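debug: dumping io for the single-chain case to check the tokenizer round-trip. Nothing else runs in this session.
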Amino acid sequence: MMIVAPSNNRSPSDGESADRMDKTPVASDVVVCVDEPDSAAGLLPHAVILAKALGGTISLLHVMEARDNDAAPIDPIDWGIQKRAVRNRLLANAKQFESPDQSIDIHVLEGSCIEQVRRFLADRPNDAAVVLGENQSLPGHTGGFVDVVLASSEVSILLVPTDAPLTKTQRYTKILVPIDGSGRSASALPTALRLAKATQATLVLCHVTPPPGLTKIGAVDREAIELGDRVTARNKRVGQAHLNRLMESVSDCGVPISTRTVVGGDVRRALIKMMHDEGADFLVMASHGQSGHADVPLGNVANHILTQSKIPVLMVRQRLKSAEEHAFSGTTSEGIRQPSDLRK
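debug: decoded output
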């Protein structure tokens, strides 16, 4: 299953303190999109926690779309009966999770599912957080609901695997936050702090130090091995120092925080392993990291985690500036990309 969260998280500069970001007001409407009304029962517990943490409303949304293979014209009376039945099932599911301070609005829309969801999200007065099922798909659409949301809006996404159920009385206990040293990755920290406060969870800031990229042509000599070891030790030391600075900057937020630094050959697999080793039951991460592109909805690491994680993953999307398109976007190449020089 999957949830989508607020998009007003910006990419802070590397020197900006996280406690300052945490004080920025955030209100995000949580939108639970379901393809089947009864699947709402598995998504609403997560939506309630998210709405409490982010101070937003909850909307339960279902779109009725005529099937492409329906040969006969739609009977308006039968369609109306179906719509009322869907609404009643949504209301029954919502009633289980409503409280005096948290109501759930029901919306049964008609027409193109893709267009209706896009329009609904665009019309939200606050930034929207969308809740989706892990295997949820759109009627008449080959891709998943997740792909459509990623491609059509800047909302963030919380993916809740089907084997990670949550009841009304449960909460998250340990939240993992991957940090790669970039301002983009740190932009997920304010949301993680709010979620940890709302659930009284422990926050674990983690950093994966990738091994240095040494050219491996021929035999690897002792000098190369020693150089690689020195670079790895330096990168791990710098990564840990960065985590320590972030932890210190939010030490007065009332959330238990620890750090974890590991050396991994593949960042994606190292993060998956870290989730298991730490016993984390929730992960919050930015959609783009140090080398992300602004013209793609999320980076390679984020995409892998989103699809392979066995625990809920809140993917925080950022509105990236043009200058932040890629870590190497500002580089130039003298001579090679200037053929006119060859004619001089």
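debug: round-trip ok. The first strand starts at residue 2 and ends at 3.
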